[in-house]
Amino acid sequence: MRDAELSNALLAWYDTHGRTLPWRVGPADRAAGIRADPYRVWLSEIMLQQTTVAAVREYFRLFTERWPSVEALAAAEDGDVMAAWAGLGYYARARNLLKCARVVASDLGGVFPDTVDGLRRLPGIGPYTAGAIAAIAFDRPATVVDGNVERVMARLHAIKSPLPAAKSELTECAAALTPQTRPGDHAQAVMDLGATICTPRRPACGICPWRDPCAARAAGIADTLPRKLPKAAKPIRLGIAYVARRADGAWLLQRRPDKGLLGGMLGWPGSDWGEAPTPAPPLDAGWRDAGAEARHTFTHFHLRLRVEVAEVPADTPPGEGMFVAKESFRPADLPTVMRKVYDIASSALLSD
DNA sequence: AATCCGTGGTG
DNA sequence: TCACCAAGGAT
């Protein structure tokens, strides 16, 4: 089957079976020539980096409700955006989201670039996201390669060499398939195929629009592709978190530095995280063990945090941190590991 | 080029 | 319980 036929078959499938998503334009509007809002496409694509649709849905709804335009987002307070992003992970995305919004609002008149090269220059926008926005929002014939596309291409052509080395070959396959007509729908169609039919485990080959031309299906190896190099084992790191509650109910928190793990997010003061962490209480107090440890797994290590708690007088100075008033403190504003620490600490403090 | 950076679901 | 995985980018 020629590339053009493959693309046509996929588009026909997409017109019937493509997913309805909050940041997408539906088939009826699409037929009427209505295009997606570049701001919403950009926002969704940033949120979807290494993140599932299910996890993104509610965040996308909250963000677009609170900040309906790139100008509104650009005018937001850093802390508000970081708090709104809390729980979604990869917090550099949120920092770059704000940077990008401010560049677009201030330097580009609130208008997103409509080319891959223009988009690629913006913070937080790499090869995938630039192609996705160019294709989806502006119908540019960009080649879009994400994890779904890699998997679909590896199976369609039965490419057995493992990722990440196979990336360039998979990109060439995807480029050859990209049509000049409806490239935005094509890009979304390949990703939908990967998300709903050509899934990592137990692909539904029987109902796939590409079941006949698929080389991996013919060879009976679809569910073994793409091959990937084994990943390094995750080491275990230890640490201590300190949760101080002032007599008036305020909590002692710190803003983490912009660089590195959980950069820019709120967190509890604590020790370093390693094999033998050095205790580092943020202030003198009657610290006591909360009786449970917070366990959390990051991308490249497991963490076990011992939790220590203290009740401190109303006139306690905040030291390196800041006391956040009871009324303005929301556990949901914290990254997940810090929220786990809060859950343990609060039950220990309240059970006295 | 290899490493760093989150999280929640899944089998 | 645990390894693997999901719409990557920055350095």
Automatic annotation (TrEMBL):
GO terms for biological process: base-excision repair; mismatch repair. The keyword Ion transport does not apply. It is an enzyme of class 3 (hydrolase). It catalyses: Hydrolyzes free adenine bases from 7,8-dihydro-8-oxoguanine:adenine mismatched double-stranded DNA, leaving an apurinic site. Its cofactor is [4Fe-4S] cluster. Residues 47-196 form the HhH-GPD domain. It comes from the Bacteria. The keyword NADP does not apply. It holds the Pfam family HhH-GPD. Its EC number is 3.2.2.31. Binds 1 [4Fe-4S] cluster. InterPro entries: A/G_AdeGlyc_MutY, DNA_glycosylase, Endonuclease-III-like_CS2, Endonuclease3_FeS-loop_motif, Endouclease-III_FeS-bd_BS, HhH-GPD_domain, HhH_base_excis_C, HhH_motif. Keywords: 4Fe-4S, DNA damage, DNA repair, Glycosidase, Hydrolase, Iron, Iron-sulfur, Metal-binding. GO terms for molecular function: 4 iron, 4 sulfur cluster binding; 8-oxo-7,8-dihydroguanine DNA N-glycosylase activity; adenine/guanine mispair binding; metal ion binding; oxidized purine DNA binding; purine-specific mismatch base pair DNA N-glycosylase activity. Belongs to the Nth/MutY family. Adenine glycosylase active on G-A mispairs. MutY also corrects error-prone DNA synthesis past GO lesions which are due to the oxidatively damaged form of guanine: 7,8-dihydro-8-oxoguanine (8-oxo-dGTP). This is Adenine DNA glycosylase. It comes from Roseisalinus antarcticus. The gene is yfhQ.
